[in-house]
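Exam revision sheet. Question 4 asks you to relate a sequence to its structure. Input first:
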Amino acid sequence: MYNKNLAKSTLNADEIRFNDARQKWINEFVNADKYVFVNPMYNLFISAEMKSYIDIVMQAHATFHYDETGKTVGDLHNKKIIHLQSSGGIYHNGDTNEHVEDLGDKYLRMMLNLMGIKDYQGIFAEGMDHDPMHAVEILDQAYAKAEMAGKEF
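Answer key, structure tokens:
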């Protein structure tokens, strides 16, 4: 369908419905000022549904464009994101948000950066499987960080 759009070929009825539905999601994303992504970590990554959503909204001429050298230039500016993620293990280095093995947060941060979104904050509830005796405390700390971030958001 993408190639048909580029070639300005006629879409069939199913392709039109798909394109219209996709465009609604893109418009909603582009028109938002703030984004909140919430997910559990799946195999060091985000869920398949979240990945599909990013694939839908990462659209040339809507969220980014290419400059004369072919470089990706983001079109979404002055927007904010909070990414809340839970995991059974520990994948970040304290308050530095240094990623150790969290491919999902790295991916999400990179894709949104490519779209021009620079104001990104990650909040992680980590280690609940590693240290189940402190799971409630871990969640409480993440809730407190999320509440503080929300007030500044």
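Marking note for examiners. The two ends are 37 Å apart (CA to CA).
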